[in-house]
Fold this sequence. Notes:
This protein is of the alpha+beta class. The chain folds into three domains: 3-133, Gcn5-related N-acetyltransferase (GNAT) (Aminopeptidase); 141-145 and 203-341, Gcn5-related N-acetyltransferase (GNAT) (Aminopeptidase, 3-Layer(aba) Sandwich); 149-198, no CATH class. Helix content is 37%, strand content 28%. The protein has twelve helices and 15 strands. The strands form two sheets. Strands 1, 2, 3, 4, 5, 6, 9 and 15 form an eight-stranded mixed β-sheet that branches. It has a seven-stranded mixed β-sheet with strand order 8-10-11-12-13-7-14, sandwiched between helices. α5 packs antiparallel against α6, α5 (151-161) packs across α7 (181-198) and α10 (293-307) packs across α11 (321-329). The longest helix has 18 residues, at 181-198. The chain starts with a strand and ends in a 20-residue tail after the last helix.
Amino acid sequence: MSICIRRARIEDRAAIERFIRIAYQELAPFKGPDRWCWQFVENPFRSDGNDLVPVWIALNGDEIVGQIAVQATDAQVAGKIYSAGWIVDVMILPAYRGRGLGHLLHQAVVNDSPLLLTLTMAPATRHMAERGGAITLGPTRQFSRWTRLRADDVQRYLVQRTAHRRRLRKAVRWACEDFAFHRLFALLANRWLSFRDRGVRRTLPIVSMVEVKSFGPEIDNLWQRTAASYPAICPRNSRFLNWRFVNCPQLQYHVFLARRDGAVVGYSVLRRAISEELRHGIIVDLFADRLDLAVFSDMIVHAVEYFGHEVSSVECATSLPELESLLRKNGFFNSRTLAPTVVTSDELLRNKIINLRNDWFFSKADHDWDQIHLG
Length: 375
Ligand SMILES: CC(C)(COP(=O)(O)OP(=O)(O)OC[C@H]1O[C@@H](n2cnc3c(N)ncnc32)[C@H](O)[C@@H]1OP(=O)(O)O)[C@@H](O)C(=O)NCCC(=O)NCCS
């Protein structure tokens, strides 16, 4: 087998589309040409002026058999902006797995990229990053808050979670089909949730939340005022936010500005899952001055009320311990913990990152975490 590994060019697009259709199957429509262009060509942080795209491909003759892509971003570390990228869409066709292609592709990406970040990843990708000398950062936690469960929510969730475990999946099917486990679970859970909600007393909000269509100068102003409270973060300015949420194809985001005494002191980005996903409401991003916890608290309450009982669960993720406490106070529980990684060969930057490993700000707006997850 003679495999060539190289950086893709825009003219490889048709071959990459073919590869995506074969490799991702039922998920492929959600990784179609419009999303690909948005993510890798129209991305405002892409540094190449030529026709190179940040996708590394493995070719057997003319056929693409594997890829690793990089979603470009800026990262601000200790007050300095660095060009960086998120490792995304790591995929080798089944017939070519287990022969070291993953490592070779990852090494090719590392050789060309000054700073690589990864937040959500499969164990194999972590393994490749670790071999590339990755620093593991402090935890980013996903939280869930159940609202009201339908029996089919429970069943779909169990089927999704056991998709790759044959025996467990069989047990789930047996429990649901023969014993209506999902119905019983939903019934008992909803009794408990009604009881939980009866005890909740809301204080008067200090901010007013207004929905807007895009991010304007007031957001850049907020970012400039608050950036210093975050030692390590992918900047939340209008350049990033408009590309990430307003121009993103397929996914529809709702953007809210938090105003206190007329001034913008925070924003939230919310999304209702589409019908192919589990019935979630997603708090994709919450941002304010790190010390302004009252604003974060009001934005969490607003999001929970916004989704109401139309969703089975509200999902949110954060790397900030103070935000974790607010989420727990509002009925959220920790449903998943991630250990992000960074790879860089810049020794000075590496030392800064090691010193700040527990001070990064991450949410579901980072990486390509908030994409369609079939449920
Ligand atoms: C993950 C994937 C890209 C690895 O590609 P590959 O060409 O088989 O990788 P390599 O042969 O270079 O092996 C890479 C390392 O990952 C390990 N690995 C592979 N699959 C693994 C798995 N499912 N769990 C844990 N480790 C795994 C290998 O053992 C190897 O480690 P080693 O060098 O210490 O032996 C490939 O299996 C794949 O496309 N999987 C489906 C898509 C996927 O899961 N992508 C990751 C999304 S973040």
